[in-house]
Design a protein that fits this description.
four-stranded antiparallel beta sheet; 300 residues; 2 domains; alpha+beta; Pseudouridine synthase; Structural Genomics Hypothetical 15.5 Kd Protein In mrcA-pckA Intergenic Region, Chain A
Length: 300
């Protein structure tokens, strides 16, 4: 059956709640193409809807942009490469959910030698903002090294990073993060740094690096429940947070503003504000004296 139920369309446009929309329809206040609507009436983008005789403008819905996180395995390429006979090409794009008419765009993509958190979106403006704001966005990397570094060695890393002659970057926090055997993990909260910068820094400080994983980008964290090669769509406040961090209006804020504007535009005028020409607004007294009193004052 074509179209959507009228009460759902009205509620989705922010005109009223679903229950209130149903009461309006029962009361005969809503018309579709000039005819009084009934509960269950279905409408599409070409139908003309009016409430109390006032035409309601409904814009065609535009698919909202998507944002998702992806746990990228170390060494996995972004795009498909030519596979040898008998082998299956393995790329990050092949593991993302399919979308029709749009394409996934990576935000600040990792190098193939690194792994961890990748963020993909269908919003080109968000991707452009990520490129512009890269120097200001904080990222957290988990680095696995061979050996047993001391806390003093870890504490010295920020100064070493700032002293880099070719590619200086900022380490805002550095800490030991466990490990077993001869492997240890350290977590680095950085700005203006890529995985290769962290590799070179740790190598220059005397330790070998076996893995570099990004676990946070701005406000977005790689959830523990997202296994390697899996993705998770960000919704609601989680999606809005990345927009705000990159200096863009959050979709949730824009949607709320649009709903408020739609409700204001569709709200019937107050009876007090409808004054016919030649009449006096309610609450205003007529025949009031405007000049000084000329008669004798009544004795009290």
């Amino acid at each position: 059956m074509p179209g959507e139920r009228l009460q759902k369309v009205l509620a989705g446009a922010g005109v009223a709640s679903r229950r209130e929309s149903e009461s309006w329809i029962r009361a005969g206040r809503v018309t579709v193409n000039g005819r009084v609507a009934e509960l269950g009436t279905r409408v599409d983008a070409d139908d003309k809807i009016a409430i109390d005789g006032r035409k309601l403008r409904l814009e065609r819905s535009v698919p909202e942009d998507l944002v998702l996180i992806y746990h990228r395995p170390t060494g996995q390429p972004l795009k498909a490469q030519t596979a040898a006979p008998g082998e299956t090409a393995n790329a990050a794009y092949e593991r993302l959910p399919p979308i029709r008419g749009r394409r996934w765009l990576p935000l600040s993509p990792l190098a193939p030698t690194d792994g961890g958190l990748e963020i993909f979106t269908t919003d080109g403006k968000l991707r452009e903002a990520a490129g512009r704001q890269h120097a200001e966005i904080r990222s957290v990397y988990s680095v696995r090294i061979a050996g047993e570094p001391s806390e003093e060695w870890v504490a010295a890393l920020p100064a070493m990073a700032a002293a880099q002659s070719e590619r200086p970057f900022e380490i805002l926090g550095a800490s030991l993060a466990g490990g077993e055997g001869r492997n240890r993990w350290i977590e680095l909260d950085v700005k203006r740094a890529h995985g290769r910068d962290l590799r070179n820094l740790v190598l220059a400080a005397g330790f070998e690096v076996s893995r570099v994983l990004r676990i946070k980008f701005g406000p977005v964290i790689l959830e523990r429940g997202v296994a390697r090669g899996r993705s998770l769509e960000l919704k609601g406040e989680a999606r809005d947070a990345i927009y705000r961090a990159l200096g863009l209006p959050a979709p949730g804020d824009l949607a709320r503003d649009a709903v408020r504007a739609q409700r204001t535009a569709s709200r019937p005028e107050r009876a007090e504000s409808r004054v016919k020409p030649g009449t006096t607004p309610r609450g205003v007294r007529t025949g009031a004296r405007t000049g000084p009193r000329t008669g004798p004052r009544r004795a009290s």
